[in-house]
Amino acid sequence: MKILVLNGSPRPNGTVASLLKAVTEPLSTGHDIEWIDVCGLHMKFCTACMACREKETCILPEDDAHRVGNKIRNADALVIGTPTHWGNMSSPLKLLLDRNVPVFMGESPKGIPVPRQKGKGAVVVTACTTPWPFNVLLPESRGALRAVGEVLHYGGYKVVGTLTKPGTKKSKAISPSLAAKARRLGEKLVRR
Ligand SMILES: Cc1cc2nc3c(=O)[nH]c(=O)nc-3n(C[C@H](O)[C@H](O)[C@H](O)COP(=O)(O)O)c2cc1C
Hey, what domains does the chain have and what are their CATH numbers? Predict the structure, then answer.
């Protein structure tokens, strides 16, 4: 299975990267895993011209957003990580996803959204400083997961599970139980 990992954290060795590794490293034998640090990409922001809805591609000059869009198209599954930033996904990840609307969804002649990656699986992970249970009660990590889930939903992906490391101000370490959950999520992703 071809698995694309999108690390939306600007910190290549941060908690989000650790969570992404915990999900994907056990799958490295037998699966083709490609890791992309989204914050290292060169992309212009979406100008909201809406031309992609008709042309089915972003009309801006070719950059990394197009190149990663093709990788998303060609991957069987996605593992997306984002730090919780203002109760949302990180801005570079949002930029990448904004630029790739036509990769995720089309529109019927009546303007009804049509998923373009239907049937594929995804895992979403996040980390935040807010400790449990406030990361869920307030829309902190919950907000970030919801925002990424919104894009995946329109793409037709099945999110097989999510993983959150709250309270990173106090401790950044991934507990053995969180690592075990990460491993189970990876197995679930490739079993589909
Ligand atoms: C711009 C910015 C916004 C943030 N917003 C939140 C937030 O809304 N809620 C929260 O709990 N933590 C927030 N944080 C803290 C990060 O989510 C936290 O440090 C996380 O562990 C970072 O993971 P990383 O080291 O893998 O990037 C924010 C951090 C930054 C830099």
Answer: 2-191 (3.40.50.360)
